Amino acid sequence: MPSKANDSECRALPAGVVQREAWRHRGSVTVQVTDAIAEEIPVAFIYNDRPHAVMMATPADLEDFALGFSLSEAIIADPRECEKVEIVPALAGIELRATIPPERAALIEDRVRELTGRTGCGLCGAQTLDAAVRHPAPVATGIRVNADALKHALDRLPAGQSINAATGAVHAAAWVRTDGSIALLREDVGRHNALDKLIGSMALARLDPRDGFLVVTSRASYEMVMKAATVGIGAVAAISAPTALAIALARETNVLLIGFARREGWSAYTFPQRVGMPARAPGELAS
After folding, report:
1. What percent of the chain has pLDDT above 90?
2. What are the structural domains of the chain?
């Protein structure tokens, strides 16, 4: 028989986590168990009553998600332009209904970027190459990351990942102060979604993107760098590898990009001098 969780155990599950039965095989023994599973549901972004995008996401920190997505996708330029967000349960998922200035809504129409994304995908449905690859302005401040601060953050990252601790199925994005302490952390089945939630939570907390750096538990794809640069984040450290386009965009936007971040070491793909390494690639911006 499956092991049934009691009411207190159910209440202890983080938002975005549900329980499902599974049959676990170890060695020669199979048992029926109850597993904690990450939720993944459609989340629709609706601006001024007009549908814009649908993302597959973990239903937690949705107000952060609405604000962060709006900022990182350059739908709005300032958090105050997001006048209201309503979280509306629907039959097939959740609607995030945002009210923004009419001139901002008109820009969405010009971009013609209504899309349906797979898990965390922010490019699916873009209708032109120009729409798919955005080039934010360079980040003004060439922030430096202290090696000890990066190690400190990596050591403490797992402690903030409550959904992943329960399920083993989600990504995290963390905002790290210059001393290595973690100020905020958000999780989602989609790496882009986790970053958008973090960006939204930073905006709500009025944290200055010049006062720290970003750590993500995923690969550093182009869009992760694009979203970071759009809101003024000047340093990104990823647990996994970057892509070639991410490196090119990081160099173009003055973003320090670190991959394969581990306590024992990492690789700097742009501006290595900003993390205490001596070399600088030809053509990079001076810090």
Report:
1. 80
2. 7-35 (no CATH), 41-132 (3.10.20.10), 147-275 (3.40.140.10)
Dihedral in degrees, nearest 10, Cα atoms 62, 64, 69, 72: -170
Q: State the DSSP code for 242.
A: B
Alpha-carbon span 103 to 123, nearest angstrom: 23
Distance CA 35, CA 20 (A): 5
Contact of 99 with 48, CB cutoff 8 Å: yes
Across 53-62, 69-78, 128-137, least confident range? 128-137
Q: Packing angle between helix 191-205 and helix 62-72, nearest 10 degrees?
A: 100
Query: Which residue is listed with tokens 């060695």?
Result: 27
**Is-catalytic flag, 121?**
yes
**Identity of the amino acid at 129:** L
List CB contacts of 173: < 8 A, sequence separation 6 or more. 185, 186, 191, 194, 195, 197, 198, 214, 215, 216, 217
Residue-wise pLDDT tens digits, 70-118: 999 999 999 999 999 999 999 999 999 999 999 999 988 766 544 444 4
Q: Which amino acid is at 41?
A: I
The residue annotated as part of the active site, out of 10, 82, 121, 124, is 121
For residue 229, CA distances in Å to 38, 86, 93 come to: 29, 27, 30
**Residues present in the chain in total:** 287
Picking from 227, 213, 198, the residue whose alpha carbon sits closest to that of residue 65 is: 198
Q: Is 287 helix (H, G, I), strand (E, B) or coil?
A: coil
